[in-house]
Amino acid sequence: MSEQTTFTDADRNDGVEPDMVDQNAAPASEATGAGVVPMNMIQALNSAIDVKMAEDANVLSFGEDAGYFGGVFRVTDKLQQKHGLTRSFDAPISECGIVAAAIGMGAYGLRPVVEIQFADYIYPAYDQIVSEAAKMRYRSGGQFTSPITVRSPYGGGIFGGQTHSQSPESLFTHIAGLKVVIPSNPYDAKGLLTAAIEDDDPVVFFEPKRLYNGPFDGWHEKPVSPWKAQDLAQVPTGKYVEPIGKARVMREGNDVTILAYGTMVWVALAGAEHAGVDAEVIDLRSLVPLDIEAIEASVKKTGRCVIVHEAPKTSGFGGELSALVQERCFYSLEAPIARVTGWDTPYPHAFEWEYFPGPQRVADALKSVMTGGR
Amino acid sequence: MDMDARMNDKMNKKNSQPLSLRVPEPSGRPGDTPDFSHLQMDPAGVVERPEVGSTPYQMRDLAFRLIRVLDDEGAAVGPWNPRLDPETMRRGLKAMILTRAFDDRMHRAHRQGKTSFYMKCTGEEAIAVAQGMILSREDMGFPTYRQQGLLIARGYPLVAMMNQIYSNAEDPIKGRQLPIMYSAKDYGFFTISGNLGTQVPQAVGWAMASAYKGDDKIAISWIGDGATAEGDFHNALTFASVYRAPVILNVVNNQWAISSFQGIAGGLETTFASKAIGYGLPALRVDGNDFLAVWAATQWAEERARSNQGATVIELFTYRGAPHSTSDDPSRYRPGDEHEKWPLGDPIERLRQHLTVIGEWDDERHAAALKDAVEQVRAAGKESEAIGTLGQSRPSVKTMFEEVYATEDWRLIEQRREVGV
Predict the structure, then answer these.
(1) Architecture of domain A4-236
(2) CA-to-CA distance for A70 and A77, rounded, in angstroms?
(3) Which of A58, A65, A166, B50 is deepest in the core (most CB within 10 A)?
(4) Topology adopted by domain A248-370
């Protein structure tokens, strides 16, 4: 579990130019007072933790390489230097231990924010998350709670192979007692992470690492535009909260609804543009709780639905979305619901772009549902 | 021989004898005479008591010894004698008696069909009772399912325990957990998981939080010999050592994990206390049936934790006298009289003997204590059964959908309506 530098390099070399990290953006940990500055997603996440740590002495952050060094993706950069050794520190390579310690701290009354270096490493912590954090409030009749945030970079598009690319969100959406949040841009990343830290229940917070430095849209041979050009990268330096459980309409449209989250939001936008279809693109932002009202309203308006995620198709969250749309919008549907997903294979290194759902596949699915699925 | 031939020869090297797989076996099975010759024990009073500030390296020998205070004649001897006043010892004895009486009644209640499940702690009463008395309710205990003595020693209402066991309308945790998986925050008793080992690294995290805040509370956890094989235990020891967490990490070695003897968890190769050594933690190995030894060792670890010197691992050497649970039948896998012949005796009888020897207890008072315990349990039983045994009463079905989250989302509201509540 120590190959991280290889993959941050791979990330940088793969269409993400160094200037995508906005050198002019104020490091969030140095932000003071009110104001709005352009931030990439790393800086926005850093700012969320920084602002909460400054506000609440019960907030602390730890994880593998997450202390002095600030994390392999730099999300916790300078938090230790600013807030002190005991508030942002390195943890042993023990995901079970990291989450279990956070659970104990949460039961004590702290609000730990822990980093699992890659979502692919979260499995040793699975029992602690599923059997312990998720059940704590319920099984103790409300005596004990787990107000913890488990942050983890997830998803592909960085030539990370099977151990640095997975999207395990549906392993957590299935668990009663957990919330699962996935932002797609710097503004939401900060507002939602702030909400997660303040949430009284455990939140699994997946960060689409392919979006850390720019809104990657899946056209992997083209350079990625930097975040600073985006409205959603204009981030207040002070505190704000984006409520968990509310979707964001990224593009209004009338002909088909695309449900996506994480990197796939930008792929969906590119796919719709490529297909020339008037699609409504909904960024779910939180899978649990899910903004069912936004989904229902949109699909009833458009009569068609395409679901996009990176995770494998079988038992992916798209299956749940598809069932919900069918249950609630059947009489509005004019075509079968389509899913564009990762394949039912492990994540392959050499076949990154055959595996990773790209805008062409989204465009094909859109054309297919526009012609009634035939 | 040329190079290729030499390489070939090396690669084809044969063992002097074929390899064989070893699977550990206990010293006795049903029908056998119990054999305790393999047990590593010391006579009472001979093990040195190191200074609380000793380094784990200086005191590593203690991981392989057995701290005992009460000798066969009932005298308290040696440097670990905590010199308790008789009243404290009488309180401990009565709490152990009450714990056993409670177990007996609830085991019977299961047999009578009043509940679905029960687990006794017969033979292990000294551990949770002594440790529950030493630490305060402000400290947090992260128990397994055999530390009911902690609640009883702290005066938690027996009727509340029974209500939980019956999942009735007054169950403090609303009928959501298997019987005996108590949760009692105000009594320093963390919600029992039922998954083995998970609570140990949580105890470390809780203790880290107390240190982080600069508070003065400590944590204490328990795990069985069998579950030390879980990764959680080793993760806990790493974190406890690295962050010098103020926590007492108990391993209750009661010899049996359901039907697997402690050798299946590695107990034939080394002691469970010695697991601490590799993590740089101090280890104490203690006669868990000796109330005074448990008391003294816990006090040593408590002092170490409270003085910011970190965690201690304590192996409490005992014997699981009862079946694992009401679903278990030990006559299928261990000698029937193994408990009866256990060389370290019974914790209640040993403390009773000591108090009698020093003139602070007698048969009459013992009989009265037994009678009082049975009466307390009977009165609580009457009260709880009036509320209802399993199925006779229960919390409102609506509560099934509550406290999954702080606030119910639309799914739970819809599903509750679907059930019609």
Answers:
(1) 3-Layer(aba) Sandwich (3.40)
(2) 4
(3) A166
(4) Rossmann fold (3.40.50)
Low-confidence ranges of chain B (pLDDT < 70): 1-12
Under an 8 A CB cutoff, do A108 and B406 touch?
no
Helix (H, G, I), strand (E, B) or coil at A365: helix
Those residues with Cβ within 8 angstroms of residue B270's Cβ, 6 or more apart along the chain or in another chain: none
Round to whole Å and give the CA distance between B253 and B227. Answer: 10
Per-residue tokens: A291 = 């903004």
Q: Which residues of A touch B160 (CB under 8 A)?
A: none
Give me the numbers of helices (H) and strands (E) for chain B, helices first please.
11, 7
- Give B405 to chain A, closest Cα distance, Å: 6
| Exposure string for A275-306, b = 16+ CB within 10 A, e = fewer | bebebbbbbbbbbbbbbbebbbbbbeebbbbb
Q: What confidence tens digit (pLDDT) does each residue in A36-83 have?
A: 999 999 999 999 999 999 999 999 999 999 999 999 999 999 999 999
Q: How far does the CA of residue B361 sit from the closest CA of chain A (Å)?
A: 40
Q: Which of these, A223, A218, A74, A61, lies nearest to A148 by C-alpha position?
A: A61
Taking CA atoms, A205 is separated from A113, A132, A208, B418, in Å, by 10, 17, 10, 31
Q: What are the tens digits of pLDDT across the range B57-70?
A: 999 999 999 999 99
Are B322 and B123 spatial neighbours (Cβ–Cβ below 8 Å)?
yes
List chain B domain ranges.
40-390, 396-421
A83: contact with B, CB 8 A cutoff: no
